[in-house]
Here is the input.
Amino acid sequence: MTFKIIVPLLFLLTVPVEPQRRSTVGKFNEVFAWKQLTYDINGIMVLQDRFAGDDLAGGDREKRATDRVYFNYNNEEDKNWGDRPIWNDSPTESPSASTVDPNDEIGRFFIQYNNVPMGAEKVGNRLFVTIPRRRYGIPATLNYIDLSRPSGRSPPLTPYPDMQSSRSIISVYRTRADECGRLWMVDTGTIEIPNNPRYLQTPAIVVYDLETDRQILRYTLKSSDLPANNTPTGLASITVIIKNGDCSDAYAYIADVVSYGVIVFSLKAGDSWRHSHNYFHFNPTAGNLRVAGQSFIWNDGVFSVAVGPAEADGCRMLYFHPMVSSQEFTVSSCALERRETNQTAFQVTGDRGTNSQSTMHGLHGPSKVLFFAEVGRDAVSCWHVDRPLAPGNMALLAQDRQRLSYPSDLHVIDDEVWVMANTLPRFIYSRLDPNQYNFFIYRAKVSDLIEGTVCAGPYDAASFYPGSYYKNA
Here is the structure.
């Protein structure tokens, strides 16, 4: 007699699903985490490598071919820019970063491994995620996640404002929104292939109206703003100030980490100029880093500009630091609004302590607390700006070698702090493990973060401790 084993069909069709566990780091709650990024493009899920995006972007095949989109000069000025000699001394690139030669990947629409997110900014119900083109195979450099729709731990990204329009932007590191409902960014115009960067068009400030999702400004930076051929690769952040509530009177401050300057743009004047100062340079004693298991030497200069509250004269205190440094500096926004640099307007604020190298930082106005994304410690820290800046007046709020490895962006919105970590040094110098979570986005309430720490409450001179370590919560 023959026996048959009947297996329920439901069992055969069931695929094991990984639990959607959300982690916490300190008082930060995980919002999203990815092993590798995926995309939702016009309702089509892009989940794995693909050579072409012909069925995704719309329009005829001639216009959709990625090599024509990425390597087409729009005007004579951009063509001349692309013909400039190339400098290959970027400290953040290495030909050994991958076993695959990036130059062999030209023309590929989506190479999943190459998509490393750099910036994250929450604006309303959208979370904008930027992926600078440091390799080929990145469908869109500017993307978003609709926070009003249910999503899992690792949601797909949607190109902003749509796939076809997003092709006009080459590469963006980080965005910043203003109170007038506009999203600002710098398009570097560059694909940063190691030892063979492609300068496709002149860097430009790009602004979108978030109400209509239309581009309302593209301001091409002047040659005087870009002193070196590799300057575009260093335009990593932008900060925006609105003067006296007048949306037409806005100033943007662009940090140049490669050639050590700050570019100022006036919306009302429709013009830009550049400031130079010794405080924009890196500190050579802080250049040795060990992050994500990788040891390396960087020389990144001024990286982030944080804005203080408006004063009676309409000026604001600007806090800034080079990434390769432990010091913080200040200058009045009104001093940078002038085209001639007043060297005495720049002040040394203090020193955060050893291994406190930081990418982005942001100020929460009501509490007067400045938050730092520390790459040197894989951490987020804080400092109350009414206190002297010293290690003893700072608090370590969260720290984790894996889940906060290279916090690449930090953004204070309303009463929350949002942080992205992306394990970038491992991508550059070694290999990411696509079977592990590599990219994280966290958020926490300011009040929860600073409660019980040295960052909370008014400054009491009697409690100042000029020590060499951080006071933890």
Summary: The longest helix spans residues 76-82. Helices lie at 9-13, 61-64, 66-70, 76-82, 163-166, 333-337, 424-429, 446-450. The domain at 26-463 is CATH 2.120.10.30 (Neuraminidase). The two ends are 72 Å apart (CA to CA).
